[in-house]
Amino acid sequence: MNPSKLKGNRPSLTEGPIAKTLFLFSLPILLGNVLQSLNGSINAVWIGKFLGEQALAATSNANILMFLLISSIFGIAMAAVILIGQNLGAKRVEEAKRVVGTSVVFFAALSIVVGGIGVIFSPAILSWMNTPPDAMELAVAYTRILFAGVPFMFGYNLVMAVLRGSGDAKTPFYFLLLSAGLDVVLNPLLIQGMGPFPQMGISGSAIATFIAQLVSFGLLIVYLYAKKYFLRITRNDLHLLTLNGAILKSLIAKGLPMGINMVVVSLSNLLLIHLVNRYGSEASAAFGVANQISAYVQMPAMAIGGAVTSMAAQNIGAGNWNRVHRITWSGVGFNIVLTGSIVILIHLFNREAVSLFLPPEGKAVDIGVHINNVTLWSFILFGIFNVVAGVVRSSGAVVVPLVFTFIALLIVRIPLSYWLGGRYGFDSIWWSFPISFAIAALLNVGYYRFGKWKQAKMLDGQTKKPA
Questions:
Q1: Of 97, 161, 382, 450, which residue has the fewest beta carbons closer than 10 angstroms?
Q2: What GO terms are given for molecular function (predicted)?
């Protein structure tokens, strides 16, 4: 039998070569992140080309709402990943299925409530967000349809969490590829009304996303049952479809800090945009482009961080602490190599990369090149703290990494950037990136080496094998 498999062809992350397993597990997550970004960018091109600036403004406001929703469930989904991983590592398959049962009921109820609230109160929510009046009608139409698709979005995120917790990152990617492909193809057809399709304008773009999510999620469920996936809920497991109090408490108590972590990152970026806007439209445009480029630079670190969380969770459940440490430093090494390679490549073609987004006249290109020169290399440090924090969270210690993120981004980076800008000018603002990321990396590595994160528990009363 292949040593990387458990009985019944169940994927296992507790055996086999660490570097190879980590790379192969990270790759589909990385490709999925790239795919989602490209999907959003291509859809924005369709909307901008066919419907104009007002429609783009409408979708931008709706996408902010969707990001907040994804942030709210991201942490809970990650808590499910960790719980499932730890139980499978300890060979408690029935307990892992119990986590699946509680998660299904909770996500189903939450998605119906959130979707219903969004459909009914979209106008009020968008008005509260100060959506431009000339874009309000379009934004309401677009947002209501996206909210109607929330059950499928939540469902896909839950199934993806279950699969990754059990060691399977490939299957979610294949169905994400299907969803993105459908979305990209259907957008222009439904916006413009090509061939047999009706012309639906901005509603067509939202319906394209709705259909893509519905089809992908439905086929994913069919596929898992056809393959007799070992964590599926069968007729004999219907008693597991209940809200187990201890599991639900863990999902919320451990998941919310991980979700809030994303909110802290977003808030930090919003405060930084507020500062940059003081320096005029060219500075804002250059920062926007630098942000788009850095989003791709961060992707290896995000993918590796997600992979090490799943791998470490299974090995913590199995009590393989030596393997956990090797996973950590393998993840750090991969991050340095992959992120560093992207950073070097962009530095070699910095001006060309920035010029893809900005007109050659004016100062915006030079500003963007300068921002990249100062900030891009620091995302290697970002990757280090993200990977180490991912391992720490996999034990159930989720609050301390959140505190470190808060300190680095809101206590250090934002005040420092405002002070540097006021004291030394716009060009100096960007040194707040390497300084804050270095502090975050040092704090997380220090806690990893000397903190008590190994004693953390995902469930009250849970016993853990000694380190």
A1: 450
A2: antiporter activity; xenobiotic transmembrane transporter activity
Together in a domain, 71 and 156: yes
| 203 falls within a domain | yes
pLDDT digits (tens, 9 = 90+) for 133-192: 888 888 889 899 999 999 999 999 999 999 999 999 999 999 999 999 999 999 999 999
- What global pTM score does this model have? 0.87
Task: Dig out the tokens for 313 from the structure.
Answer: 């969770």
State the burial class of residue 115 (Cβ atoms within 10 Å of its Cβ: 0-12, 13-18, 19+).
buried
Structure tokens belonging to residue 161: 């969490």
337, 301 in Cβ contact below 8 A?
no
- Residue 8: pLDDT band (50, 70, 90) is very low
AA letter at 341? S
The 10 Å CB-count burial string (b at 16+, else e) for 7-22 is eeeebbbbbeebeebb
Domain residue limits at 357: 254-455
pLDDT of 327: 96
Same domain, 279 and 235: no
CA–CA gap between residue 389 and residue 447 (Å, rounded): 9
Pair of tokens at residue 358: 């900005």
What is the distance between the alpha carbons of residues 139 and 119, in angstroms, rounded to a whole number? 12
Let me know if residue 6 belongs to a domain. Answer: no
Domain for residue 19, yes or no? no
- The residue among 212, 243, 274 that closes a domain is 243
- In sequence order, what DSSP letters do the residues of 320-373 get, joined into one string? -HHHHHHHHHHHHHHHHHHHHHHHHHHHHTHHHHHHTTS-SSSSHHHHHHHHHH
Contact in structure between 447 and 431 (CB atoms under 8 Å): no
Cβ atoms of 371 and 290 closer than 8 Å: yes
Q: What is the pLDDT of residues 423-444, one digit of tens each?
A: 999 999 999 999 999 999 999 9
Instruction: Report the domain count for the chain.
Output: 2
| Together in a domain, 152 and 230 | yes
Pair 224, 306 in one domain = no
269 and 222 in a single domain? The answer is no
Average pLDDT over residues 290-307: 91
